[in-house]
Amino acid sequence: MSAISGIKPTASNSLNATVDITIPVYNEEDVLPRTIASLTDFLAANLPNPWKVTIADNASTDGTQEVSKALCENHAGVNYLHIPQKGRGKALKLAWLDSNADIVSYMDADLSTDLSHFPQLIQALETGNHIAVGSRLSKESRVSRGLKREFISRSYNRLINIMFRTGLPDAQCGFKAMTKTTADIIIPHIKNDNWFFDTELLVIGAKRGFKIASIPVKWDDDPTSTVNVINTAKEDIKGLLRLRFGGVPHAQPPEPLSLDL
Q1: Which of 209, 128, 131, 198 lies closest to 170, judged by CA?
Q2: Whole-model pTM?
């Protein structure tokens, strides 16, 4: 397993894959202190793998940079990456391609998905899957959100499956992980730098034979979310049409993650 900056593997975790957790942020100075405290406490208590957290700041205009740097000083294993352009997809591309971990992952800054599911994502990758995603739309999922967002989400994911037959219940949940080798192969093919990044990644993965595990999650909607649902939906439809009529890029799945030294 590869070494990961800022964390020294111990005898108890030296056989485990190293994990990089990216938090893409834009103007999250108020949310970040609570998020980083909760996340690092959880990881220290519940994840046996060596890990680090990367705050990927895509062009925040508030005090996110200063807050993030202070958090890096106060919490071991937390790093800060500044990206001068906006775009969640761009932030994830840069953070993941730059990572030296065995597994790369991300979750939304509001921690809407219950952290108890994160070890399940990692276990799915350590047992042969290339990609592991949280699902808010599986029968076993427990979700709290408004009817409008629920309808839009289910309609969008149904459209994906009609157009591409991926079989994936939820392409948009901000709770995903994959092996670094998978990221290195798929990311260069992803054109979108914003919200469609997730869908494009999963459509390429599903259509090209990558093994994808879907994990039902407990998820609570953030009522203060600033995501523009209508504009995001328009971007998503354009992206789906591009892939449908322009073709899904070819990508060869790598060997599954090996825990052999």
Answers
A1: 198
A2: 0.91
